[in-house]
Amino acid sequence: MSVRRWMAAVCGVITAVAVTAVPVHAANPIITSIYTADPAPLVVGNTMYIYAGRDEAPTGTNNFVMREWHVLSSTDATNWTHHGARANIATFPWAGADAWASEVEPRNGKFYWYTSVNGNGPGWMNIGVAVGDSPLGPFTDAKGGPLISDSTPNSSGLNIDPTVFVDDDGQAYMYWGGYWGARAVRLASNMIDTVGSVVTPTGLTNFWEAPWMFKRNGLYYMMYAANDTSGCVTNSNYACQRYATATNPLGPWTHRGIVLGQVSSTTNHAGIVEFNGQWYLVYHTADAPGGGNFRRSVAVDRLYFNADGTIQRVIPTTGGGGSGTNIAPSATASTSHVAAWESLAAINNGGTPANSQDRSNLAYGNWPQQGTQWIEYQWPTARSINKSSVYWFDDNQGIDLPASCQLQYWNGSSYVNIPGCGVAGNTENVINFTAVSTTRLRLQMTSRTGLSTGVLEWKAFQP
Ligand code: FUB
Q: Are residues 351 and 217 in the same domain?
């Protein structure tokens, strides 16, 4: 597994904090006048705030250049007001660079802004905390030094990405960490001191960085970035958002699944919040014009829970429209047969195969079955679908391209054929059709004589 090296950007000290409020447009990304990253939502009264870092890397620069933390707000989760930078590196006199991920937590009428920031002392990243009297500040350093640093016993290999949570009994907890090192500690009621030892939580399967903690119906949730290739990402430079639940705020945690798959930026950082009776996922991508891994942009999408408290995977939306949204990752997949050493999860894990032999994001194969086999997607409620594409798997052994294939949708009582299924190798075979409303899409594949068939990725698009 490759390890990304975070490059410390040398930053100038900024003393001015912008205070203008500018309305910004509604579609994702929610703001394109600047690049924004690492969003952390907070609801106060009838307003949702998003605290985000600012990416200032020029085009072609492959390091983070981050000096400010900005605030956006909305009363409808659609139309956003940009309040400018409300904190920056100079907010922490002991810091010198790298205004990375942050989160604001309210308590006793004050707002505590926990930040990842590079101190001027030994070591690299630290957790700092600023305090303000309102969600928009002004914010000042609350402690006069780091809350967590490399010298904190049992601290993470990279002390970044704080998430702070105050439980119903008033006990506050902070989780943080990077480089696969999740950490947790209790906070004092003053919110600026730790209490007790730093612990290493268990059960956060494949934790990489960016934890986000919340509670719903008495259950604790921890969402976090992972970068494994076991159904998460196509290669470990990228990350997805996994989540775990626990009945105790310090765990042990039980991994539950993926909230958000790989996005267009290598980093994946998100927060979840309930606002006006709906749940939202706030995250970042590289989708803005001129965007990139160090020029990211904040996006917001609805998030849904199942009746059992599990989270439905979020399919990112964009303002671009046009080609539609691949809703396959939100479907439950089934098949007539899958070989024990292959994986049905391959077909809708968001992979982009390089060729028909590319197993880097898992492969589905039905060896030793021959003749007609099928894979199917099912959604809990009807979806409008007008396009599908299939990337066939060919291992140059027992699995080959199919002789023929047939796409079908369920009309409530039987499967109806959709014409146009292609069997070419090393490419996406795209089928466009008049939109159908259905809960099930099925792909039948008929093998060549003496061979079996397989699929690397099968997509279904909602207009
Ligand atoms: O934005 C800098 C770093 O990238 C954050 O702290 C991580 O979570 C990742 O998004």
A: no
